[in-house]
């Protein structure tokens, strides 16, 4: 086995939250609100349903092959060559998704905080920190996450509570203004984000109680959706749907306007600071999946030698993106069909069906 | 990175991880006597011992005859200053040379029976042993015991006469507390074990002694409580101690550095204390203590990070107060690590973080300052560290002078001259004070890392600061102390042990011992110990 | 050990490759406290900034010795866009202009008539200015407004900001303005301010009385259609606007004393709420506005004893009438004179009739002007202070 460590269910839940939330909370609200206006929160609920289904699919698939990751059982199910092809595609997707995450991360920091700093600095430092965690293995990665994620979640909640002063529930009315199609369109992006839970297939083998995998995945999805939902509600209730759709990072703007007694204000830097930990963790998980996957794909005994080269590839891929407009457009239009239909639902579903048909793997529970 | 480290390791073989490569032979000359035994002839023995202890002017040889039978010659050898002279004089020399004839009148003692007789009736010493090995004899002489050689016997009697001038038990200097025992460990191992035994009157308190250090032959004891301690831990401690093959152990720090798991980490993973009550509490939680002769600092393992933010007093004061103080300490730790970096980040990158009036006030103070804020803070921090170091090294009577000069020069003159902003002085001073609120050994690590983070923060603002913290976080997460994750019970989270991290549960609610340390014997006490007024107590 | 090596490497990288990209030392920035924008005759924009002089803000002994030195510096430059003007400004300002602590954005009257959208865009898009800048329109030129002095605060920008924050009048922050600009169901209304003659600062030397100072003050509301200024509401109508918008329930209502109508009674408002209920049958548009108010009696000029239930009842109904009058004044002006919905009736309508809204939204202002609005006020008096009647009045 490449990975020696084991993580417990609590750590796994937090890891999956980190897997989705840090960048989702940044860009998803604006995209969803653009489609569904004040009904964006319904979109999130719809997306949550989809996310739960994907979680079920992924855990069912993984539990048929206890102790094995996606890359190992893909070969077992489909045979050596097609399995390798699927594995290769997933490695590509992990890398690509990670590069996009880094782009979001860096462009946010850049446009919101440090405009004169070249993005490549953020890429390199971000990858370096993540590499440190990845080198130390899943155990350290999830402990790191367990140490800092609660800070992020807690602070976010506090800020949201403080923001209630500026909120008006009436801004959510009227319900179903734009119709079902708009709501579904709005749901696509958050669903594709929640679907990133596919990476959980790389972690399930290292759970100390694999039986709880679905519970873990479902709880994590619900948690993430809750935060997405709240952040969208907060943004809409403060700014109204029109302005929320105009901002690029509405949650960030919502934090900026919080002002209690002219004293508790200007909290965005603290929020961004704490959020950065989440960013490191998110990059770290994708990074880890890519590294572990490649090691298994290449049949190596240790994944550590791959950490550095994969890091370099990641920085290079991330640097390819030209500007934030391109990135946002990609995230809003191309990403959902690309990620959702192929990697998050398509391939796992095919794998599961073939596994069932060929009778591969044990009974999934 | 590994390649960069390897040559370093090769250059210092003695400090490396491979003691097996070293030769077992001591590097000292003339070590051939080590395996030899005594001869029946007194002269030969004396000659040999004198040869070994040549030019050891503090060794005393006293030859006399046995009062019972003047044919029997005796020799007493001890080290002046280490052996208790009254004991040696009254209970050995006087007893054998003078008193025996009166005790047993008219009875002739043959040469053959002499040894047995002296052991049984002659000596008034409490603790005697006998040995025939020359090595043990030498060892005994040099460790303060006196050795009695009897002509015609190849066996020496070792009298426990250790008694040298030692420091009295005094108040702990490095870990002062308001409430709690005022005793501190001293430099004598035996006194230290006694201090422990006095607190834990149980046959289960085991104290095993080794000798470490090829030249110093230092006594090292490990103490643990059988039944609570994890047996594997004891075995691990022993095996780590046994692979130490160095010439000298002068302080427990030598051992600490040779048994820890992460020699490259700035964080200590072996805790030390000079308070017997704290050591006893550690033992009761299932830890192992390592006592070293010659130092009042006792090591305890495994070590958790939170220990550094706790004080023994925490358990003597009321738990509500303790919890509040602990919150203060945790915040101080954070402050001592990050405040200067945060200040740099805010003043040179993120002006939006401060309220307008505060920002303008700081800006006003900095108007005349000729340096960038990073340089300003760095210089002030270095000055502060210099002062602190000077305060420790300085002969005590001069301490006053340093503090006056420090306060005047740095606090007043620098600000008045416009070289430093008042806000910077406040930040540095607060950071300095905050770093004294928790254990010194952890605060050293924090101080060191503070500079690193300041550097990152000066280069990349908040992003640098957070990256630095994340790296430190990852590093801390990867540390272990004798197999126990350093950051437990926070991560990995052990729910029940959170009772004693920031929050300190009332003693009647601490039912269990730390789960990852006392693995076998979790139960600390019965439930239902919460005191209640008599009328609400159930009858019967 | 690897981590330490990595850390060292990163340190070397960041430190030696000349990091410090976005670094701005505090001594290198000019902190803008107030911004003013005026429209020039030649179609250019004049940007005026009030920059803080940090030396005046320290409370040290030295600053005290130097006495009260001027706390701000006002400087202007012209350009086609805000950014261009800022570049020209940078030619005169020896430090980097920093917007992160800008408190107010003042639009000159002419500028506001030409449109605010082109101004506010920069302040929303750029990362430095905050969403909660107070936006205001001044009668006259923004430059004059910023060049005033404040006796109580250090700078006039701070004084204006605090005036807004007190919510004594109608105040609006940038993000609220953005919301009003983005919605079709409401037209923007922005605080109006002006330069007023306000008080004097007495000196110890009686003879050397300083002349009255020109200082900033509130002056009602500027009414916009889309993003262009079309008119004003005076302070009395502003109160009505506040009631109809259901915001900032503060202030005092003056009503005649029930027994002696020529004497007045003041009632301080404690809290209130407003509900707008639209009714629409496809043709006829009607709004029910329900206002609830609670107040305390704080002042009485008349001699009568008002601490009687029936007198209080009368006061309550007078209070309701007065409030209704105020609201109607604002409404009349908006409906008849300016023909814009600055109250958000459109949004209320949208919430209830989402289908009908789709037809109406593009000609909402006309619909609104024709709509019938019924205002119903329910007033209550809670406390009467520490007296039962005017003190020092002999028993009759």
UniProtKB/TrEMBL annotation, chain A:
Q: Name one GO cellular component term.
A: membrane
State the Gene3D superfamilies in the record: Amino acid/polyamine transporter I (1.20.1740.10)
TM region(s), chain numbering: 12-34, 40-58, 78-97, 117-134, 146-163, 183-204, 216-239, 272-294, 306-325, 337-357
Instruction: Print the keywords alphabetically.
Output: Germination, Membrane, Transmembrane, Transmembrane helix, Transport
Membrane topology per the entry is: Multi-pass membrane protein
The record's InterPro entries line, in alphabetical order, gives:
Spore_GerAB
Q: Which GO terms describe its biological process?
A: spore germination
The family classification in the record reads: Belongs to the amino acid-polyamine-organocation (APC) superfamily. Spore germination protein (SGP) (TC 2.A.3.9) family.
Write the protein's name. Answer: Spore germination protein KB
Q: Which organism was this protein described from?
A: Desulfofundulus thermosubterraneus DSM 16057
TrEMBL record, chain B:
Q: Where is the composition biased (Basic and acidic residues)?
A: 523-540
**Mind telling me which InterPro entries this protein's record contains?**
Spore_Ger, UPF0353/GerABKA_families
* Top-level taxon of origin: Bacteria
Keywords attached to this Swiss-Prot or TrEMBL record, sorted alphabetically, are: Membrane, Transmembrane, Transmembrane helix
Does the entry feature the keyword Membrane, yes or no? yes
**One matching Pfam family:** GerA
| One GO term describing the cellular component | membrane
A Gene Ontology biological process in which this protein takes part is: spore germination
Transmembrane domains' residue ranges: 327-349, 421-441, 453-476
Annotated region (Disordered) at 12-31, 520-540
The record ties this protein, via PANTHER family, to: LEUCINE ZIPPER PROTEIN 4 (PTHR22550:SF5), SPORE GERMINATION PROTEIN (PTHR22550)
Name the family the entry cites. Answer: Belongs to the GerABKA family.
Name of this chain's protein? Spore germination protein KA
Q: Which organism is it from?
A: Desulfofundulus thermosubterraneus DSM 16057
TrEMBL record, chain C:
- The name on file for this protein is Spore germination protein KC
Name the family: Belongs to the GerABKC lipoprotein family.
Q: Which UniProt keywords apply?
A: Germination, Lipoprotein, Membrane, Palmitate, Signal
Q: Origin organism of this chain?
A: Desulfofundulus thermosubterraneus DSM 16057
- Does this UniProt record's set of keywords contain Membrane? yes
Pfam family example for this protein?
Answer: Spore_GerAC
List where in the cell it is found: Membrane
Domain Spore germination protein N-terminal, which positions? 23-194
Spore germination GerAC-like C-terminal domain boundaries:
220-385
What's its membrane topology?
Answer: Lipid-anchor
InterPro entries given in the database record: GerAC_N, Spore_GerAC-like, Spore_GerAC-like_C, Spore_GerAC_C_sf
């Amino acid at each position: 086995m490449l990975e020696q460590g084991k993580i417990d269910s609590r750590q796994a839940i937090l890891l999956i939250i980190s897997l989705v939330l840090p960048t989702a909370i940044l860009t998803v609200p604006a995209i969803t609100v653009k489609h569904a206006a004040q009904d964006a929160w319904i979109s999130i609920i719809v997306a949550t349903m989809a996310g739960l289904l994907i979680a079920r699919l992924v855990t069912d698939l993984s539990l048929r092959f206890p102790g094995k990751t996606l890359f190992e059982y893909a070969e077992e199910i489909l045979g050596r060559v097609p399995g390798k092809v699927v594995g290769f595609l997933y490695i590509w997707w992990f890398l690509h998704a990670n590069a996009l995450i880094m782009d979001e991360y860096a462009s946010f920091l850049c446009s919101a905080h440090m405009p004169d700093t070249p993005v490549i600095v953020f890429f390199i430092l971000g990858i370096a920190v993540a590499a440190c965690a990845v080198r130390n293995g899943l155990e350290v990665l999830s402990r790191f996450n367990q140490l800092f994620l609660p800070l992020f979640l807690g602070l976010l909640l506090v800020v949201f509570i403080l923001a209630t002063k500026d909120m008006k529930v009436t801004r959510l009315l009227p319900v179903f203004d734009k119709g079902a199609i708009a709501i579904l369109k709005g749901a696509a992006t958050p669903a594709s984000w929640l679907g990133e839970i596919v990476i959980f297939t790389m972690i399930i083998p290292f759970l100390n109680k694999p039986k709880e995998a679905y519970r873990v995945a479902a709880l994590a999805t619900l948690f993430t959706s809750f935060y997405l939902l709240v952040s969208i509600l907060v943004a809409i209730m403060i700014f109204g749907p029109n302005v929320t759709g105009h901002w690029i990072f509405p949650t960030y703007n919502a934090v900026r306007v919080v002002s209690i007694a002219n004293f508790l204000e200007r909290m965005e830097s603290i929020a961004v600071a704490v959020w950065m930990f989440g960013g490191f963790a998110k990059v770290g998980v994708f990074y880890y999946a890519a590294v572990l996957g490649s090691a298994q794909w290449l049949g190596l005994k240790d994944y550590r030698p791959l950490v550095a080269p994969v890091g370099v590839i990641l920085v290079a891929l991330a640097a390819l993106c030209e500007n934030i407009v391109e990135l946002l457009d990609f995230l809003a239009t191309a990403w959902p069909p690309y990620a959702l239909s192929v990697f998050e639902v398509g391939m796992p579903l095919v794998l599961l069906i073939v596994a069932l048909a060929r009778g591969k793997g044990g009974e999934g529970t | 990175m590994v390649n960069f480290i390897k040559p370093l390791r090769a250059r210092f073989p003695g400090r490396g991880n491979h003691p097996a490569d070293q030769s077992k032979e001591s590097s000292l000359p003339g070590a051939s006597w080590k395996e030899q035994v005594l001869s029946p002839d007194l002269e030969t023995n004396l000659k040999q011992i004198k040869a070994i202890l040549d030019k050891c002017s503090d060794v005393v040889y006293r030859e006399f005859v046995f009062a019972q039978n003047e044919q029997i010659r005796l020799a007493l050898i001890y080290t002046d200053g280490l052996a208790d002279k009254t004991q040696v004089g009254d209970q050995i020399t006087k007893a054998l040379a003078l008193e025996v004839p009166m005790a047993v009148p008219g009875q002739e003692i043959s040469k053959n029976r002499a040894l047995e007789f002296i052991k049984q009736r002659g000596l008034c010493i409490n603790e005697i042993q006998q040995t025939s090995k020359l090595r043990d004899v030498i060892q005994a002489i040099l460790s303060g015991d006196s050795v009695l050689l009897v002509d015609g016997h190849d066996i020496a009697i070792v009298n426990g006469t250790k008694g040298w001038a030692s420091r009295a038990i005094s108040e702990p200097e490095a870990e002062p507390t308001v409430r709690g025992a005022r005793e501190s460990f001293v430099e004598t191992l035996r006194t230290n074990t006694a201090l422990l035994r006095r607190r834990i009157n149980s046959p289960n308190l085991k104290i095993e002694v080794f000798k470490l250090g090829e030249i110093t032959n230092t006594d090292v004891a490990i103490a643990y409580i059988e039944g609570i301690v994890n047996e594997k831990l004891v075995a691990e401690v022993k095996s780590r101690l046994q692979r130490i093959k160095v010439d000298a152990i002068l302080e427990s720090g030598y051992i600490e550095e040779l048994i820890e798991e992460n020699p490259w980490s700035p964080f200590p993973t072996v805790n030390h204390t000079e308070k017997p009550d704290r050591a006893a509490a550690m033992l009761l939680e299932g830890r192992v203590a390592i006592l070293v002769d010659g130092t009042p600092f006792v090591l305890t393992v495994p070590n958790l990070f939170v220990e550094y933010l706790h004080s023994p007093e925490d358990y003597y004061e009321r738990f509500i107060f303790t919890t509040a103080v602990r919150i203060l300490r945790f915040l101080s730790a954070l402050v001592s690590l990050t405040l200067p970096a945060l200040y740099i980040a805010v003043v040179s990158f993120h002006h939006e973080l401060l309220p307008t009036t505060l920002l303008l006030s700081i800006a006003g103070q900095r108007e005349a300052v000729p340096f960038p804020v990073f340089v300003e803070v760095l210089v002030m921090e270095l000055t502060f560290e210099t002062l602190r170091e000077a305060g420790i090294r300085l002969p005590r009577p001069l301490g006053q002078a340093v503090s006056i000069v420090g306060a005047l020069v740095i606090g007043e003159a620098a600000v008045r001259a416009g070289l430093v902003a008042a806000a910077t002085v406040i930040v540095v001073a607060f950071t300095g004070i905050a770093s004294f609120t928790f254990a010194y050994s952890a605060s050293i690590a924090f101080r060191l890392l503070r500079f690193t983070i300041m550097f990152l923060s000066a280069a990349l603002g908040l992003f640098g600061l957070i990256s630095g913290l994340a790296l430190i976080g990852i590093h801390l997460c990867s540390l272990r102390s004798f197999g126990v994750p350093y950051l437990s019970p926070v991560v990995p989270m052990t729910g029940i042990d959170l009772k004693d991290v920031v929050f300190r549960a009332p003693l009647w609610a601490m039912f269990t011992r730390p789960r990852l340390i006392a693995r076998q014997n979790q139960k600390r006490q019965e439930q239902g110990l919460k005191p209640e007024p008599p009328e609400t107590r159930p009858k019967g | 050990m690897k981590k330490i090596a990595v850390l060292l490497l990163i340190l070397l990288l960041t430190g030696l490759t000349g990091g410090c990209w976005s670094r701005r030392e505090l001594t290198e920035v000019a902190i803008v406290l107030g911004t003013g924008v005026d429209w020039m005759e030649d179609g250019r924009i004049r940007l005026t900034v009030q920059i803080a002089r940090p030396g005046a803000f320290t409370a040290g002994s030295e600053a005290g010795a130097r006495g009260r030195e001027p706390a701000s510096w006002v400087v202007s430059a012209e350009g086609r866009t805000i950014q261009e003007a800022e570049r020209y400004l940078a030619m005169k300002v020896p430090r980097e202009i920093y917007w992160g602590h800008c408190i107010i954005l003042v639009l000159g009257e002419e500028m506001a008539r030409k449109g605010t959208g082109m101004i506010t865009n920069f302040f929303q898009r750029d990362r430095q200015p905050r969403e909660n800048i107070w936006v205001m329109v001044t009668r006259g030129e923004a430059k004059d407004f910023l060049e005033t002095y404040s006796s109580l605060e250090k700078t006039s920008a701070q004084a204006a900001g605090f005036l807004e924050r007190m919510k004594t009048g109608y105040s609006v922050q940038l993000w609220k303005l953005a919301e009003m600009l983005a919605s079709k169901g409401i037209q923007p209304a922005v605080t109006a301010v002006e330069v007023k003659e306000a008080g004097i600062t007495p000196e110890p030397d009686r003879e050397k009385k300083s002349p009255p100072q020109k200082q900033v003050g509130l002056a009602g509301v500027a009414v916009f259609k889309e993003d262009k200024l079309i008119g004003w509401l005076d302070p009395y109508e502003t109160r009505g606007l506040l009631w109809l918008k259901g915001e900032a329930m503060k202030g005092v209502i003056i009503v005649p004393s029930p027994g002696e109508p020529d004497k007045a009674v003041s009632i301080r408002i404690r809290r209130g709420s407003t509900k707008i209920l639209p009714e629409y049958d496809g043709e006829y548009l009607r709004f029910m506005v329900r206002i609830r108010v609670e107040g305390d009696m704080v002042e009485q000029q008349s001699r009568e004893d008002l601490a009687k239930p029936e007198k209080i009842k009368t006061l309550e109904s007078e209070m309701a009438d007065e409030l209704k009058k105020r609201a109607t004044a604002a409404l009349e002006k908006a409906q008849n004179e300016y023909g814009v919905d600055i109250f958000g009736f459109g949004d209320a309508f949208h919430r209830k009739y989402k289908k009908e809204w789709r037809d109406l939204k593009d000609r909402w202002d006309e619909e609104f002007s024709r709509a019938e609005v019924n205002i119903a006020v329910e007033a209550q008096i809670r406390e009467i202070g520490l007296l039962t009647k005017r003190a020092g009045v002999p028993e009759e």
